[in-house]
Write a structure and sequence with these properties.
Blueprint: H1 2-13, E1 19-27, E2 30-38, H2 39-45, H3 59-64, H4 66-76, E3 77-81, E4 91-98, E5 111-119, E6 127-131, E7 142-149, E8 155-160, E9 165-168, H5 171-192, H6 194-206, H7 212-232, H8 240-260, H9 268-290, H10 296-325, H11 327-331, H12 345-367
Helix pairs in contact: 5-10, 6-8, 6-10, 6-12, 7-9, 7-10, 8-9, 8-12
Length: 373
């Protein structure tokens, strides 16, 4: 009961939309920190700063309360080297820069910039940041953090609510983990993606030779890699619902084409054309995982490699089954007028019919036209 009353009292004293922005630059052994926050947030935790009670802070007021501000920031915003298990670094408040009250509009909130520096005994790489800014008066204050390390892309994080600690890792440290994470995602997407498996299976049974599968897999790989990369960087934006419906129809199309043709073929054109479409499907699957990920190229490479490993494993497994079961078919004399396929015609027809039915089922299901879907 008492914690709830304390929170209620804090909210009653706080202004809405309490927000701050923090930028941290890690340069060798030094961390340069810029905190930009609302003057009103500072006044709420240190009311004695506002000497004239006008809810803005002038340069004189900030100078008079500098020691109190430095003490408050030292407790509310802390930087730890490494994973944060030791003592925080001692920070130095270098300057306070308020917005000029004369430039503020009637409904503008004054902002104050605090510049701090931290120096470590060793070069700063992995660091842990703790932000409890203005939680005394607003437990849900947001601190939007940006960390810059060397030539790496900036990394962002939002402190909000009870989450007060976050560990930053430079790209060189994160890269192996990001690569492994997206490699697993790519493998799992093929392992559990029955629609992609069905598409590859329809192409496989349509093929004339084992060696033609190399062209099929290569064409599919190049195509989906192109559209996946373009979608990931925002060059292509196609509604996910349309993509999923089109993928289902592409599966049904390839399977029906197998049924209508009497002879096997080298289906790499279909693999490339519909691979472009499947790449958009991969991008839709990855959208949430890639959001805010600065190591975009590493993530895309890892996912693509995972997809390829999954595809190769599938093709090798099917090829092994074909080699064992249809050995006699492969050794039988070939009629030049009727080229022999990778699998007997009857098997091609049965597999293609099953894949076609699956493709039409996925289309109806994704369109919402199945009463039980």
């Amino acid at each position: 009961m008492f914690p709830a009353l304390a929170v209620a009292a804090a909210l009653a004293a706080a202004h809405p939309d309490s927000l701050s922005r923090t930028r941290v630059e890690l340069v060798e052994r030094e961390a340069r920190v810029t905190l930009r926050f609302q003057a009103l947030s500072l006044i709420e935790v240190l009311p004695e700063l506002d000497l004239d009670r006008n809810r803005v802070l002038g340069a004189e007021e900030l100078a008079a309360g500098r020691d109190g501000i430095a003490g408050y920031l030292a407790g509310a915003w802390r930087l730890f080297p490494g994973e944060g298990g030791g003592e925080p670094l001692a920070g130095v408040l270098e300057k306070l820069v308020p917005d000029d009250p004369a430039t503020l509009g009637a409904f503008d909130l004054q902002l104050v910039e605090a510049h701090l520096s931290f120096t470590a005994s060793e070069e700063l790489g992995v660091v842990t940041i703790e932000s409890r800014l203005f939680h005394e008066t607003n437990p849900w204050h947001k601190d939007l953090l940006q960390v810059v390390h060397g030539g790496d892309a900036p990394v962002t994080h939002t402190f909000e609510g009870s989450t007060a600690r976050w560990t930053f890792e430079p790209a060189a440290v994160r890269r192996p983990g990001v690569f492994a994470q997206f490699l697993r995602l790519g493998i799992d997407h093929i392992r559990t993606g029955f629609d992609h498996q069905a598409f590859l299976l329809a192409l496989l049974v349509a093929s004339r030779r084992l060696r033609t599968l190399i062209g099929v897999v290569t064409a599919f790989t190049v195509a989906h890699s192109l559209t996946l990369a373009c979608a990931a960087v925002g060059w292509i934006d196609v509604p996910a619902r349309f993509v999923e419906l089109a993928i289902a129809l592409s599966i049904a199309y390839v399977a029906c084409d197998n049924l209508l043709r009497r002879e096997p073929r080298n289906p790499w054109p279909e693999a490339f054309l519909f691979g472009l479409l499947h790449g958009l499907g991969f991008a839709g699957f990855l959208a949430d995982a890639l959001a805010g990920e600065p190591l975009l190229l590493t993530a895309l490479f890892g996912f693509n490699l995972g997809v390829e490993l999954g595809q190769v494993a599938l093709v090798l497994a099917v090829t092994a089954v074909v080699a064992l079961i249809f050995r006699a078919h492969r050794r039988a004399p070939e009629d030049p007028a009727h080229p022999r396929g990778l699998v007997p015609a009857g098997v091609r027809i049965v597999v293609s019919a099953a894949v076609a039915l699956a493709g039409f089922h996925w289309f109806l299901e994704r369109a919402g036209w199945l009463p039980w879907a």
